[in-house]
Design a protein that fits this description.
Blueprint lengths: L14 H12 L5 H8 L3 H13 L19 E9 L4 H10 L3 E6 L6 E7 L3 H7 L6 E7 L14
Helix pairs in contact: 1-2, 2-3
InterPro entries: AsnC-type_HTH_dom, Tscrpt_reg_AsnC-like, Tscrpt_reg_AsnC/Lrp_C, Tscrpt_reg_HTH_AsnC-type_CS, WH-like_DNA-bd_sf, WH_DNA-bd_sf
Pfam families: AsnC_trans_reg (PF01037), HTH_AsnC-type (PF13404)
GO molecular function: sequence-specific DNA binding
Length: 156
């Protein structure tokens, strides 16, 4: 789970920081020497910039991106969840305990949560949602494609 820090002022990024972040977003496993070549700095200077971006909270963590299809999750769904009265915290706990919910945002509006769910088959959908619908109303849409995958926000 990601921990969000309250940031009072955004970090000031220069062109080198932006290039470094873009290169890390493409492949965070690149050696510092390769990143240094890409951004035009020495390896020690590049390593120091990475440490500074981490200290400023710009870089939260380095992680791996997995293709769910390679693990047999052939379907994805977006599930809007509206807890029944008095069930908000219990619904949030239920969602946390179901590993097929791979993302979940608490939102404003008619629904309280918007979640991404991975599935091996369509038959699995009712089985998973039955764990939630005891305490909440749900509305589900099957994902056909993802024209914009999770990406960096504008860095400029």
């Amino acid at each position: 789970m990601s921990k969000r820090l309250a940031v009072s002022t955004p970090a000031a990024l220069d062109d080198t920081d932006r290039a470094l972040l873009a290169a890390l977003a493409q492949d965070a496993r690149q050696p510092v020497s390769e990143l240094a070549r890409v951004v035009g700095l020495s390896a020690p200077s590049t390593a120091e910039r990475i440490r500074r971006l981490e200290a400023q909270g710009v870089i939260e963590r380095f992680t791996v991106q997995i293709d769910p299809r390679a693990l047999g999750f052939t379907l994805q769904a977006i599930v809007r969840v509206k807890p029944l009265p008095g069930q908000l915290h219990l619904v949030e706990e239920v969602l946390r305990r179901i590993p097929e919910f791979v993302e979940c945002d608490k939102v404003t509006g008619d629904d309280c949560f918007i979640c991404r769910l991975v599935l091996h088959s369509i038959e699995q959908l009712d089985e998973i949602l039955s764990k939630v619908t005891e305490r909440a109303e749900t509305s589900t849409a099957i994902v056909k494609s993802t024209p914009i995958a999770r990406r960096l926000p504008p860095l400029g």
